[in-house]
Design goal:
single chain; 347 residues; alpha/beta; TIM Barrel; eight-stranded parallel β-sheet; two-stranded antiparallel ribbon; 39% helix; binds S-adenosylmethionine; binds iron/sulfur cluster
Length: 347
């Protein structure tokens, strides 16, 4: 049947051949994704598919409850696009929903989390998560500039880990990056906070973004002296609408470095055992990010697409729009000893 028909029409023969070629290509793509570990195929599934498969558990969540900041880091990928912060009771309601859905670790981030109500809003959430929700791990990532000793005195007991960001041990480089407020020393402050962490029994962590301004620096001596429980080293990442593209508040293109230069930085610091590297690939979809409205942010398309708020539709519905790649989360070592009770720290 087929042969005589196609022989009679070269056009039909061409169309059939193209159809076969298309199917072969699709099959090839599918096999390619499977052999890469299936992570892309899984992440690309539609939200409905993800819901059918059973929603992801929000084991470790990053809540960027404010976008406001007192620093001006030129590469920042979570900028002050709004000044909105949820009322405390609403934020607590959301945190309880997350706990009931399986959350074990919460990380408070921003903007600068110690800015809103001079850190009291943050302190009350930290206290609620540890004392009332009994979460195994409560952590904060901060630029450190607004932290007072009185905060540790009041809330230190409820905090497992404090991460402070520092991209350079040269003040001039910090000024160039924008990681500074006026002429205040970011580095002196970092050392002061390190001391308070020890005094108030909070695990100290360090975060650095490798970019064009610090890529040739050797930070080994300072990091060894500070002795953090983890040193997260990020390759500077671009996110459309945040630090790249027309609607963005920052233009981070001039901070971006290649894979090779990032690897050079890692090689120079190979003797620092607490170093945890995060390339762009590892970082992009391996964080569950909640914004100031408690919406999950999906970074798969190179920008931050928001879900509906967990306060309106619940965690199970909203998380299907998070774009979260659980496999990459585990691969980048996202699950570690994150409760200070389980750490062998020298207090
Ligand atoms: C957005 S900040 C918010 C918390 C706080 N203001 C701070 O700087 O630590 C959270 C973390 O993201 C890092 N970060 C910001 N922009 C980045 C970028 N473009 N690429 C990689 N990491 C980035 C910061 O250095 C910080 O460690
Ligand atoms: S990375 Fe810099 S600008 Fe962005 S929130 Fe943190 S301190 Fe502020």
């Amino acid at each position: 049947m087929f042969l005589p028909t196609v022989a009679a029409s070269p056009k039909l023969l061409l169309r059939r051949c193209l159809g076969v070629l298309q199917r072969v290509l699709c099959l090839f793509l599918q096999v390619y994704r499977w052999t890469r570990g299936g992570s892309e195929a899984r992440v690309e599934g539609s939200p409905e598919e993800r819901l059918r498969q059973g929603a992801t558990t929000p084991t470790s969540v990053n809540y960027h409850f404010t976008r406001k900041c007192n620093y001006k880091c030129g590469f920042c990928f979570h900028t002050a696009k709004t000044s909105f912060v949820l009322p405390l009771e609403e934020a607590k309601r959301g945190l309880k929903l997350l706990k009931d859905s399986g959350m074990e670790k919460i990380n408070f981030s921003g903007g600068e989390p110690f800015l809103h109500e001079k850190g009291d809003f943050l302190g009350k959430m930290v206290q609620y998560c540890k004392r009332d929700l009994q979460l195994p791990s409560v952590s904060i990532v901060s630029n450190g500039s607004m932290i007072k000793e009185s905060w540790f005195h009041k809330y230190g007991d409820y905090l497992d880990i404090l991460a402070v960001s520092c991209d350079s041990f040269d003040e001039a480089t910090n000024q160039l990056i924008g990681r500074a407020q006026g002429r205040k020393s970011h580095i002196e402050n970092l050392y002061k906070i390190r001391g308070w962490c020890q005094q108030y029994k909070v695990a100290f962590k360090l975060n650095s973004v490798v970019n064009t301004f610090n890529v040739d620096e050797d930070m080994t001596a300072h990091v060894t002296e500070l002795n953090p429980v983890r040193w997260k080293v990020f390759q500077c990442l671009l996110i459309d609408g945040e630090n790249a593209g027309e609607a963005a508040l920052r233009e981070a293109e001039r901070f971006v470095i290649s894979e090779e230069r990032f690897q050079g930085f890692l090689d120079r610091h190979r003797n620092v055992s607490c170093l945890v590297p995060e390339s762009n690939e590892k970082m992009r979809n391996s964080y569950l990010i909640l914004d100031e409205y408690m919406r999950f942010l999906d970074c798969r398309r190179g920008r931050k697409d928001p879900s509906k708020s967990i306060l309106d539709v619940g965690v199970k519905q909203a998380i299907c729009f998070s774009g979260f790649d659980e496999k990459m989360f585990l691969m980048r070592g996202g699950k570690y000893v994150w409760s200070k009770a389980d750490m062998k720290l020298e207090w």
